[in-house]
Design a protein that fits this description.
Length: about 140
């Protein structure tokens, strides 16, 4: 998800501009839709490449290497599929007017955080607490 929006300039709010106004929501929606289209194209390319590369190697080492490459590619595509789902949920939040506000406490997430992670649903404080809890549970 990092740099989903590498092709987009950061949003520069004007002085006194209202948070999550229509221009800001449109900016983030455009970033998310572009990232989603890029991932869907990658997935499509992977499917075609896997179909084209479906070679049966006689050498067990070559076969194992090919299977390893395919497994890695499938894991990456699965990760992208999950991210696409998250992007769709984020776009729905933009359209409902809930985007940009923390799901836990309701405060503004902030434009800089959203620029870094457009699918963020928690403010930095709630996310930090969430990660601390995860670490404690993992011990």
């Amino acid at each position: 998800m990092d740099l989903l929006h590498k092709n987009f300039p950061s949003y520069a709010p004007k002085k006194g501009e209202e948070y999550m106004n229509p221009k800001q929501r449109a900016h983030f929606k455009k970033i998310l839709e572009s990232a989603k289209m890029e991932m869907l194209e990658d997935i499509e390319r992977t499917v075609h490449a896997m179909q084209d590369d479906a070679t049966l190697f006689a050498d067990p080492n070559d076969r194992a290497s090919q299977e390893s490459d395919i497994a890695l590619e499938l894991r990456n595509r699965d990760r992208e599929r999950k991210l696409i789902k998250k992007i769709d949920e984020t776009i729905a939040r933009i359209e409902s007017g809930d985007y940009g506000y923390c799901e836990n406490c309701g405060v503004e997430i902030g434009l800089k955080r959203l620029e870094a992670r457009p699918t963020a649903t928690l403010c930095i404080d709630c996310k930090t607490l969430d990660e601390l809890r995860e670490r404690q549970v993992a011990k």
